[in-house]
Every structure is written in structure tokens, then in C-alpha cells.
Write a structure and sequence with these properties.
46% helix, binds (2S)-2-hydroxy-2-methyl-3-oxobutanoic acid, 334 residues, alpha/beta
Length: 334
């Protein structure tokens, strides 16, 4: 997978130089941060989007992108967008779960069988339910179209994960979220919550044996350098809500709000296609980088979660109404 010149230029464009001239005239400097590498479609599309917003606002907005955890860990940046220190942040619904537990419902293990179900749910009633929860219970709001992370796969340095028993006692890094901890406890692994910014080092120094992420993250964050085995489990679909600080948003005049909203949602839809293509085409590349990749039988892992009462536990926590909203798109899960 080559990082072409256009990607780097697009990444450099909106980040630095032209800003100087624009900063002198911009009425609004809007800071957007994320935790992903510069080469991930998240940042390629975000930089294109920033350039469009700045141009369409005729210099009234200076939209700045801070990728790759430049502004801190996920939990740091969540606090920054809540306080208004930054205006925008993209975050997995499950890490948001520390603040808004109901937001984690889209991460239910093996819920969405394919992207048809994912987008129907997240652009439909389930997404609307979670966006209302975010809006009603925090200083933030979420734009209409969630951005994609992808279906998550498991990697390890110790051994290939071919069946649930291979996870027994394995020290697995999970993002800082009660839901992820619960799922990997149900797999009888030993989950450790670590912010993404610290994952590469934690794997390299064997603080943990394994982790789980979509292939696009494994490749762009070069986790193949510190993990030998990759198991295609598709155990969870994950995305990124594009969060905004409400007070900062209310300060923006309506015409500028429209420019930002239209471009954020359009970039999100384009990013979904990029991420899907990347995730679908990286197995060969990761093998070339020396990873040993195996497929798995999802039913074995789903049965393990059932036997552990995982679905029962979270149905109770999310409540009947929300659970029914999920099953409206996925069919019965228990
Ligand atoms: O932390 C992770 O593993 C990542 C990058 O996938 C998320 O942001 C949830």
C-alpha cells in the first residue's frame, strides 16, 4: 500500500502554510482533532474538507485539523471538546460510553451482519437515538453521518486466535470503554484499557499480548511491526461520531454552520467508502509485511458471548426500547 504524493499534499495543505494569510482575516478559527495517523482516510478526507470549508467561507473560517493524537489522548480530547478548548473531535461511540453509556449500543458483538445493516441503523432510528442521547446529556452534539472505523479484527504476538479458547488469559488491549472490557472478559481474556496513542509501545514492550482494530488502523498505525498474528473475527463494527461543542457551534452564524455541516457530512460519506475499500483490500498487504492471517468461525465467538450472558447483561443495561431499536436492523441477537 503506497502513500501517494496527493495524500501527503492534501494532508499538508490544510494544516499549515496557507493558514497564515487566512488566520489574519478569519473570524472563526475552528480546531478539529482526532487520534488517527495522517495517512488514514479519516485525515485525507478531513483535510480536503477543511480546505473546502475555508474556501467556501471565503476566509471567514480557518478550519484546522490536528491528527494522530497531536492534542493528547482520546480521553484528553474528549474533555477538550466538552470544555470548548477544541471545537470538534471524532470519537468511537464506545469510548463515549464513559459519559453516555447508551452510545455503546452500536458496538454489540456480531450485531451487524453487513454494511447494509450498519448504515440503515446508524443513519436511521438507532443513530438518531444515540445522537439525541449525546445532545441531551452533554455539552456536545453529533453530526448526522457517523464516520467509519470498520469491522474489528484481533491481533497478537503470542499465538493465532482461531477459537475463543485461544483468548483465555490473553492480555488484550482494549480502548478505554466499559463495554470493551465487558466483551473481552466474556471471552475470558485479560483486557487492559489503553488509549490508542499508547498502543504501539504497549505491544512493543509486551505490556499486552494483543489488541483488536480494523485492518485500516493496523496498517496505517503499522501495528504489524509489533504483532505477528491477525485473526479475521469481525467481532464488532465501530465508527466515529463527529462531535462538536454546542456553545462554539451556537457562536457560528447560520450561513457558516451550513457550510460546515454540509462539508462534514459529505466528507463522512466519502470516508466510509475509502475505509471500506481499504479494509477489504489489506489482507495481501499485511501478509507481505509478514503477518500470519487466519479466518475464524464467528458462530464460535458469538456462542461464547451468549454462554457468558453478555447479550443478556447489555440488553438489561441499554433497556428494552433501545435494544428493540437495535434488533429492528439486526434481527434477534440472543
Ligand atoms: O482506539 C482504538 O482502537 C481506535 C483507534 O479504533 C478507536 O479510536 C476506537
Amino acid at each position: 500500500m503506497s502513500i501517494d504524493r496527493r495524500t501527503l499534499l492534501a494532508s499538508a495543505g490544510a494544516l499549515a502554510l496557507p493558514g497564515i494569510a487566512r488566520a489574519q482575516t478569519a473570524e472563526f478559527t475552528l480546531k478539529y482533532a482526532n487520534n488517527l495517523p495522517l495517512t488514514h482516510p479519516m485525515n485525507v478526507r478531513a483535510n480536503e474538507m477543511a480546505a473546502k470549508i475555508n474556501a467556501e467561507s471565503k476566509g471567514r473560517i480557518d478550519f484546522k485539523v490536528f491528527p494522530n493524537g497531536q492534542l493528547g489522548t482520546d480521553t484528553d480530547m474528549l474533555n477538550q471538546v466538552r470544555s470548548g478548548a477544541i471545537e470538534f473531535f471524532t470519537l468511537s461511540p464506545l469510548i463515549l460510553g464513559n459519559l453516555i453509556p447508551s452510545a455503546q449500543i452500536s458496538g454489540v458483538g456480531f450485531a451487524f451482519k453487513d454494511y447494509g445493516q450498519v448504515w440503515a441503523a446508524m443513519d436511521g432510528d438507532l443513530g438518531a437515538h444515540v445522537r439525541k442521547e449525546i445532545n441531551d446529556k452533554s455539552q456536545m452534539f453529533a453530526f448526522e453521518h457517523i464516520w467509519d472505523n470498520g469491522y474489528r479484527q484481533m491481533t497478537s504476538s503470542a499465538r493465532a486466535i482461531t477459537k475463543p479458547d485461544d483468548l483465555k488469559g490473553m492480555k488484550m488491549r482494549v480502548p478505554p470503554s466499559p463495554f470493551w472490557v465487558s466483551m473481552f472478559k466474556a471471552f475470558e481474556a485479560s483486557p487492559a484499557t489503553i488509549n490508542f496513542a499508547e498502543v504501539y509501545t504497549a505491544l512493543q514492550t509486551k505490556v499486552v499480548d494483543g489488541q483488536e482494530n480494523p485492518l485500516a488502523i493496523i496498517a496505517t498505525a503499522k501495528l504489524n511491526e509489533v504483532q505477528k498474528f491477525c485473526s479475521i473475527t469481525n467481532h464488532m463494527w465501530d465508527g466515529f461520531w463527529f462531535l462538536g461543542n454546542k456553545k462554539a457551534w451556537e457562536r457560528l452564524p447560520k450561513d457558516l454552520q451550513d457550510i460546515v455541516r454540509r462539508n462534514v457530512n459529505a466528507a463522512g460519506l466519502a470516508q466510509r467508502e475509502d475505509v471500506r475499500k481499504l479494509n477489504d483490500n489489506l489482507v495481501g498487504e499485511l501478509k507481505n509485511r509478514g503477518m500470519v492471517i487466519n479466518t475464524t468461525d464467528a458462530e464460535l465467538f458469538r456462542a461464547k458471548l451468549r454462554a457468558a450472558g453478555f447479550y443478556e447483561e447489555w440488553h438489561k443495561k441499554f433497556g428494552d426500547q433501545a435494544w428493540a431499536l437495535l434488533e429492528k436492523y439486526t434481527g434477534k441477537l440472543k
